[in-house]
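Quick board copy: two proteins, each given as sequence then tokens.
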Amino acid sequence: MKRLMMLAMAAVMLVGLLSACGSKKSETVDADLDEFYDDLEDSYGWDDNYLVDIEGEMLESYYPGLADIETEQFVAKTPMMSATVNEMVFLQCKTEEDAVKAGAILQDRIDAQADGGAWYPESMEAWSKGTVIQQGTYVAMIASAEHQDEIAEKFNALFA
């Protein structure tokens, strides 16, 4: 009788353990993209006048169609005047489908600049190393001659 009872209890515990292992909760990440950019600005010593917002006609010129995508958060920066490539966009779209569309628009910008739009060989080379990263509804375009890999790693770390 004791053995039967022990066997039954062990079976109940085993079923409980297996069902707990099978249910994984999906984690939602809420990244503050303004805060992320501010941290980059502090880390790299960029003053308030180094990178400016990309908006209005400049936004449409650089990223045709991006303004038509509904976003939760949007940060787009480029140097006012610099010989060093350092352009980045961080956004959170309403849907993953919109994030894919935004990623394609951002990749078009990288490709156009790398294929001659950046004019100078060093700039085109820096643009060719640019990257678009999608993490769910979040998208980043990073084109930075000096900090490309570091910024990409920091962005991905928001979702780790």
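And the next:
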Amino acid sequence: MTAQTEVATAATTPTRWQDRTGRILMAITAAATLVPFVEGVTRLGDVSEDLILTEYWRTCAYIVFAGMWALLAVAPRKQRGMWELLMFHKIAVTIQAAFILDVPHAVRTLIADGFVSLTTIAAYVLCRGWYTWRRDALGPNDNR
């Protein structure tokens, strides 16, 4: 590697503390997502027949989101498109909740999804999540 390439790489890759902080944020977000999953499971017994499938789907979605954040915590620059999908969904839900504050649970959704939007955006910046789109990001020599 040339000296110029080494300097460019050092200037653009996240520092150790940035990477660790971003990964910890994603791990905390993944763990926090298990709380609404458990709440959803406990709620399923009391849901009316016409809503059971919707509530079941929603409850299972929490596990999918927790898994996506966990994957980002483990390998933040190996999950092409996952950062962007998570940010799109969480920001969209936050905005929707802000427009319907009179609906039951909208304030709680605004706070929860707003929080995970912020943690995901912060981790994206700290971990340099956009690096997943580099040509060599998914190569065998870069295990991060």
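Board note added afterward: Residues 16-43 form the longest helix (28 residues).
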